[in-house]
Amino acid sequence: MQSLILTTTTRLLAALLLMFSVYALLRGHNLPGGGFIGGLIGATAFILYTIATSVDEAQAALRIDPSNLAMAGLGVAALGGIGAAFAGQPFFTGQWLFLFRDGDSYVPLSTVLVFDIGVYMAVFGGILTLVFALEQEI
């Protein structure tokens, strides 16, 4: 039996959890947080949505197979490590590119962020693959 109150509240809470997971991801390469905890928070949003509705509705809302997302995340994380090879440094050495805007202000881009995004995708997809498999009806 589905509760209208639970379903409505879950949609709002899931949106907030997804925004917070992106925040944790983006602040993680400079401060505590990062791809792992961001992926766990994001997966929690869909787990809560699965409990409130069903596995089929949660998979429809995700719009991508979570196992494919996990595999793509592994590839993105590996790309973050390979970036150092182009600079002639050891695997997974952080590389930064500073894009200048006006004078002294700049936007730093790093391979660390690329690695964190890959970890986020791998954890998000891996956890949801496990949860959806456990929730499937036999």
Automatic annotation (TrEMBL):
It comes from the Bacteria. It is a multi-pass membrane protein. Keywords: Cell membrane, Membrane, Transmembrane, Transmembrane helix. InterPro entries: CPA3_antiporter_subunitB (IPR050622), MnhB (IPR007182). The chain crosses the membrane at residues 34-55, 67-92, 112-134. Residues 5-129 form the Na+/H+ antiporter MnhB subunit-related protein domain. GO terms for cellular component: plasma membrane. It is found in: Cell membrane. Belongs to the CPA3 antiporters (TC 2.A.63) subunit B family. This is Na+/H+ antiporter subunit B. It comes from Paracoccus haeundaensis.
